[in-house]
Amino acid sequence: MSIDANMSHQSQPPATSNAAEAISPKLSRIRTIAKAFSHPSLLIGSIICIVLIFLVAGAPLLTSIDPNAQDPMATFSPPSMDHLMGADAFGRDMLSRVLYGGRVTMLSSLLVVTICGVAGTAIGLVAGYFGGVVGFTIMRIVDLFLAFPGILLALAVTAILGPGLINGVIAIAVVLVPIYARLVEGASAEVRHLPFVDAATTLGSGHGWIIMRHILPNVMSGIIVLTTTWLGIAALWITALGFIGLGVQPPTPEWGAILNDGQTYITLAWWITVFPGIFLCLFVIGVNLIGDGLRDELDPTLARR
Asked: Are 175 and 154 in contact (CB under 8 A)?
């Protein structure tokens, strides 16, 4: 009886062992995330971006003033308790306009990199995986777009489509899609010749399965780093188009349009340009720090200290 009891007891795996095996992957992921955020650039950039997102997203809670409401009695009012960031030439509250304008700039830049990431990645995957005539034709068209200076191409597209936020997003997307396509094409062509891709082809896997299952995950790190880098640049270009009048049209608040409104009164009312400029600089610095941190964490070729 004792022998049977011992055998039955040994045949059942310990419950604590199963629990440990179930918890260990979660702990491993948590440790990986904690280690990544211990990187100084990634940590500082994340803090800056989180604070800005909180301020912009919580604009209705932080101010009850309509960003387009005009108050002739508050024209060019300096920063005070009534208007923490002052007022512009029409008496509009600058705090409200900067916060609500940040929504337009930040969401527009996010939309740009999303469109470019999806379209450029798809083009690069097809060109890099199939190669040959297909890849050669696609990449020569990409090189044609890359031959033009980026901001000039964006201005040309905007001039053709006309001013407006959507047209500005499309214009910047036309510039960034070839950059994504070039990066993904090079990485995909390299991964395409690795042994596990050849094994999947030998086993009869379809092209779509191989691309989504094997090629895309191995080029995703470069896409993530490029996206964080160009998120700040896209914000600068959105702001530039708004500054010259080809982006968001008045009276909609947007950082570039606000800077354009304040350039005439820079010596009279410095706060009109300084505060949106500070927010724009912080956003660009924050996303660039995140990009640097992600590059160090995701790129295995870089030496880590």
From this structure: yes
Query: How far, in Å, CA of 143 to CA of 185, rounded?
Result: 12
Say which residues have a Cβ less than 8 Å from residue 16's Cβ, sequence separation at least 6: none
* Positions of the chain with pLDDT under 50: 1-3, 5-11, 15-17, 19-22, 303-305
Number of C-beta neighbours around residue 193 at 10 A: 9
Report how far residue 210's alpha carbon sits from residue 200's, in angstroms, rounded to the nearest whole number: 7
- Is domain 43-72+83-298 given the CATH code 1.10.3720.10 in the classification? yes
Name the token pair of 30: 């948590």
> Residue 58: CA atoms inside 13 Å, Cβ hemisphere, count?
8
- The one-letter amino acid code at 83 reads H
Alpha carbon 247 to its chain's center:
19
What is the distance in angstroms between the CA of the first residue and the CA of the last residue of the chain?
Answer: 60
Closest CA to 239 of 266, 258, 265: 258
CA distance linking residue 260 with residue 258, whole number of Å: 5
Residue keyed to tokens 């640097």: 292
DSSP annotation of 291: H
Instruction: Determine the length of the chain.
Output: 305
The CA–CA distances, whole Å, from 201 to 193, 204, 211, 214 equal 11, 5, 11, 11
Q: Give 68-83 pLDDT, tens digit per residue.
A: 999 999 999 999 998 9
Q: Which of 231, 223, 209, 213 is CA-nearest to residue 284?
A: 231
pLDDT value at position 9? 46
* Residue 181 vs residues 63, 175, 193, 219, 270: alpha-carbon distances, Å: 42, 11, 19, 12, 42
